[in-house]
Specification:
Keywords: Acyltransferase, Cytoplasm, Endoplasmic reticulum, Glycerol metabolism, Lipid biosynthesis, Lipid droplet, Lipid metabolism, Membrane, Transferase, Transmembrane, Transmembrane helix
Subcellular location: Cytoplasm, Perinuclear region; Endoplasmic reticulum membrane; Lipid droplet
Radius of gyration: 24 Å
CATH topology: Glycerol-3-phosphate (1)-acyltransferase
Distance between the termini: 66 Å
Helix content: 40-55%
InterPro entries: DAGAT
Main location: cytoplasm
Membrane topology: Multi-pass membrane protein
């Protein structure tokens, strides 16, 4: 108590330097635990991402409708008018913000798991790329942190390359959420958007596609290394049409963020999940995490960016040509997994299941 009074006296009597010295004399026990505070900030940063993905679009849509019924109707009308004018921006490269991508909140997001990005080969700025990200997991935490922010230093590791993470096009029809996503360089995963990035935006573009999509999220289980890829060939055909190199990307630990209740094939619950997936565009998974069920487990996520596969430009590739490069991609992904699996907690006997 005497120490606190002495510090208070210094604050009242002294100059700036005496204030600082008085505060420095306070016992460490009186200060909040920095590590505990950092952990709270990490949880909050991850929680805001999850809640934003699940609820921001719907909440802002309802708020906009409600504002039309209040004295704020003019603000709602102006935003709606601007939304109509700006409707096609996501299809034309979006509106990324380096300021948003470098927010401090993303460093707390990164450190919660933590998330790491490992570069194995250079990506040349005079080429365009399609990065196939595996596996999907529940929320693609590794994909977002590595390619939707600068928390893991993508631009420093791959100078001259501009990443664009592709996600559900439906998200860009929702007010506010669309702007939030575009600020991180996130784009719709549709033909118009990706065509623009690979054809009308110069070189040095890297479109990141989560190849397994919603179907893969229904199979993600901690400790299981399974990807949906066998019949996913559209991204390979696109790469051939645009002459963009293919790059396999694998995230160890992505499936360990949540535990999921898996319903057996043929059950009514499984059928309901697949039906909703076709209607909504994403799979409604029954998952749970560490706190309140919604906060993920803090297991490490390590993303490995593999070696580019050089792809020629063929305007109308044959099915045989697509199969050839798809096979090359699958083999490259397997080699990437086998090379790094023992470094990140897996056994030599573990294999990558491709379905």
């Amino acid at each position: 108590m005497k120490t606190i009074l002495a510090a208070y006296s210094g604050v009242l009597k002294g100059t700036g330097s005496s204030i600082l010295s008085s505060l420095q004399d306070l016992p460490l026990a009186l200060w909040p635990c920095s590590s505990r505070m950092e952990k709270h900030l990490q949880v909050i940063s991850v929680l805001q991402f999850v809640v934003s993905f699940l609820a921001m679009g719907i909440a802002c849509t309802l708020l906009l409708i409600y504002m039309f019924c209040t004295d704020c109707w003019l603000i709602a009308a102006l935003y709606t008018a601007w939304l109509i004018v700006d409707w096609n921006t996501p299809k034309r490269g979006g509106r990324r913000s380096s300021w948003v991508r470098n927010w401090t909140v993303w460093t707390y997001f990164r450190d919660y798991f933590p998330v790491r990005l490992i570069k194995t080969h250079d990506l040349l700025p005079n080429r365009n790329y399609i990065l196939g990200y595996h596996p999907h997991g529940i929320f693609c935490f590794g994909a977002f942190c590595n390619f939707g922010t600068e928390a893991t230093g993508f631009s420093k590791k791959f100078p001259g390359i501009k990443p664009s993470l592709a996600t559900l096009a439906g998200n860009f029809r929702l007010p506010v959420l669309r702007d939030y996503l575009m600020s991180g360089g996130i784009c719709p995963v549709n033909r118009h958007s990706i065509d623009y990035l690979l054809s009308c935006n110069g070189t040095g573009n890297a479109v990141v596609i989560v190849v397994g999509g919603a179907a893969e999220s229904l199979h993600c289980v901690p400790g299981v290394n399974s990807v949906t890829l066998k019949n996913r060939k559209g991204f390979v055909k696109l790469a051939l049409r645009k002459g963009s190199d293919l790059v396999p990307v694998y995230s160890f630990g992505e499936n360990d963020a949540y535990k999921q209740v898996i319903f057996e094939e043929g059950t009514c619950w499984r059928a309901l999940q697949k039906r909703l997936q076709k209607i909504l565009g994403f799979a409604p998974c029954l998952f749970y995490g560490s706190a309140w069920g919604i906060v993920p487990f803090c297991n490490p996520i390590t993303t490995i960016v593999g070696e580019p596969i050089t792809v020629p430009k063929i305007e109308d590739p044959t099915e045989e040509m697509v199969d050839l490069y798809h096979g090359m991609y699958v083999r490259s992904l397997r080699c990437l997994f086998d090379k790094y699996k023992t470094r990140f907690g897996l056994k030599e006997s573990d294999i990558l299941h491709i379905q």
